[in-house]
Design brief:
190 residues, four-stranded antiparallel sheet, Alpha-Beta Plaits
Length: 190
């Protein structure tokens, strides 16, 4: 059998398959041309710009005396920060310890806390309970300053949300405080 006869026989018996194969070959060549002509040069240009910017950032960091941090180093630092935060946030069972600490700090500043009001709120997407505390103390300016300073130095995560001073009678100045702190909810008793 000659080559021409084989081609004719193949064309007659497998015409649909040959047309599909030819179409796929043409599409493949068109796709290759588009990739080589337009897309690959754009990708190479973007990659070149990225590498240039990355080099500029590294040079700037070296000039400032800093080193570039790898993603692995960032992960380790974030994990360490998370562990420190978790250690700083006590269980809800420590709520009475917080009240006791506030009373001790006020006593050291020669102030009296007679009433503390609080409200709690469970945070969404977190196993934390946010507590808002409000109370008043009356004393002279130095006593109040010492008390505020001791709150700021506390090892607990305490945020002073609002502070207001009002003139009082002969006892001194009335200090109204609004504090915020956090507890882990895992051991909260209902």
């Amino acid at each position: 059998m000659r080559l021409q006869e084989m081609v004719e026989l193949l064309w007659k018996s497998q015409r649909g398959l040959l047309l599909l194969l030819g179409t796929l070959l043409v599409l493949n060549l068109l796709l290759f041309t588009v990739l080589e002509r337009w897309i690959m040069p754009e990708v190479a240009e973007q990659e070149s710009r990225f590498l240039q910017k990355q080099t500029e950032v590294r040079q700037l960091m070296r000039k400032q005396g800093r080193t570039a941090i790898t993603p692995e180093q960032l992960y380790v630092l974030a994990r360490q920060d998370t562990i420190k935060f978790q250690q700083a946030v006590p269980d809800y069972q420590e709520f009475t310890g917080l009240i006791e600490e506030l009373l001790i700090l006020s006593s050291r500043a020669h102030l009296d806390i007679t009433q503390i009001s609080y409200s709690s709120e469970e945070l969404k997407k977190s196993p934390l309970l946010k507590l808002n505390l409000n109370f008043n103390v009356v004393g002279d300016y130095e006593q109040l300053k010492k008390f505020i300073h001791s709150l700021e130095q506390s090892l607990r995560l305490i945020t002073i949300k609002q502070i207001s001073l009002q003139g009082a009678n002969d006892d001194g100045v009335n200090l109204r405080l609004s504090l915020e702190t956090f507890f882990r909810t895992g051991s909260r008793e209902s």
